[in-house]
Design goal:
98 residues; two-stranded antiparallel sheet; elongated
C-alpha cells in the first residue's frame, strides 16, 4: 500500500547499516514479501477518523476504499512509526542479549 520510494529506502538502508554493524556475512537483510503483507494487514483500518476523515462516513470506517489509497501520507507515517518501534525493540533485545 505504500509508494515505491519507501520500498527503495527499506531495501537500501538495512543493507548499508548491516554492512557497518553486522556480524554475519551470510545473513540477508531487507524487505521480504511476507513482512510487507503482515504490515499491511496489521495497519489496515488503524487510522482514526481524526487522522483520515475521508475514509469514514458517519463515524464508521468505510470499507469501500483502503486507507492507504485515501490518506497515503498518514498511512506512510504509521508504517514508518511501526518500523521504528520494531527497530527499538530489536536494539533493546540486543542490549539485553535476548
Amino acid at each position: 500500500g505504500l509508494s515505491y520510494k519507501y520500498g527503495m529506502y527499506s531495501a537500501c538502508m538495512p543493507t548499508i547499516v548491516y554492512a557497518l554493524l553486522g556480524q554475519s556475512r551470510q545473513l540477508a537483510v531487507g524487505p521480504v514479501a511476507m513482512v510487507s503483507l503482515l504490515i499491511e494487514a496489521g495497519l489496515n483500518g488503524l487510522l482514526t477518523e481524526e487522522e483520515c476523515p475521508a475514509s469514514y462516513s458517519g463515524g464508521v470506517l468505510d470499507d469501500g476504499k483502503p486507507q492507504h489509497q485515501v490518506c497515503p501520507e498518514q498511512y506512510a507515517q504509521l508504517a514508518i512509526l511501526t518500523a521504528m518501534v520494531v527497530g527499538v525493540m530489536q536494539i533493546v533485545a540486543r542490549v539485553l542479549n535476548l
